[in-house]
Amino acid sequence: MELEPIIPFEPARMQNLPSGTNWVAQVKWDGVRILHYCDGNESRLFNRKLNERTLQYPELLDTNSFCKAGSVILDGEVIAFDNTKPSFHEVMKRDRLKQEQSIKHSLNITPVTYMIFDILFYNGTWVTDKSLEFRQQLLDQIIVPRNNIQIVQNFSDGTALFNLMGQYQMEGVVYKDISSKYRINGKDARWRKHKIVNDLFAVVGGITRSNHIVNSLLLGLYTDEDDFIYIGSAGTGKLTRHDWAFLTEQTNKIVSTKCPFSNDPEKSKDVIWVKPELTVKVEYLEFTSGGTMRHPSIQTIIDVDKNECTINQILK
After folding, report:
1. What is the homologous superfamily of the domain 10-14+22-195 according to CATH?
2. DSSP letter (8 states) at residue 30
3. Which residues contact 168 (CB under 8 A, 6 or more apart)?
4. Domain 199-315 has CATH 1.10.10.10
5. pLDDT digits (tens, 9 = 90+) for 119-150
6. Contact, 296 vs 282, CB < 8 A?
7. Is residue 214 within 8 Å of residue 207, measured between CB atoms?
8. Among 3, 64, 122, 211, which residue has the least CB neighbours within 10 Å?
9. Which residues of the chain are in CATH 2.40.50.140 domains?
10. CA distances (Å), 48 to each of 31, 114, 215, 300, in order?
11. Which helix H or strand E contains 222, and what residues bound it?
């Protein structure tokens, strides 16, 4: 049977630490959410937005080499390392590739690991109505770990894990109710995420240049009324000289005479306005009382829909 891709279950942002013995904690890996579909004949990969990523990660397609199942849908995170810890910037080097030759060349330069944390379908039967505890036991029975295939580990002390992740500057922790069923295209507090650093997807609305090269970005988010709100500027982070050159090339094509923001940016001198088409992922410490990010850091250039670049990222 052909397996149609689904939108995965998402954790809600945590307001209160879960209490009780029915909770487990897992490392929140800073990567790309990927579901692995194998119908017994072929294996395919899709991200959480139903965009196919089979071409981008060919080393994860030999399902029979690590999974003892005739057909299966696995849920997990594809990660890549920057020195000693996972880096979203690194995995995006792989995720945005389109040419087969470039992908083949990148296999050794930017190796990836698939961190599996759930199973939705097994040997012709959906298991989403089973408890997380059952699904994890099933994973332990059928997954054969190897260097680039791992099962995400459970921890009983979520507070200790969160503190440890802080020491290693990791993304955070996900808390899960061990009795929870898997809710396709759902999001609720049976899964909760607790981030060490905040991040969001933002849209570029303006730039500044130095020696004709872009050196900072003015960023914004959309409201539910489709107003484009300025949230701050950023010129530091993980972008390389190649990335800044790419931004220069792309923004040259979308220069505008009009400020796209519905509110006034605190800096407008020497700013070049651009049409809000380019998107980036940004980490930040917090939002100031004036509604701008404190200590923003650009993590990567990423192609996401503007529906993901909303103020709801902050509110939820």
Report:
1. DNA ligase/mRNA capping enzyme (3.30.470.30)
2. S
3. 85
4. no
5. 999 999 999 999 999 999 999 999 999 999 99
6. yes
7. yes
8. 211
9. 199-315
10. 12, 15, 32, 18
11. strand 213-222
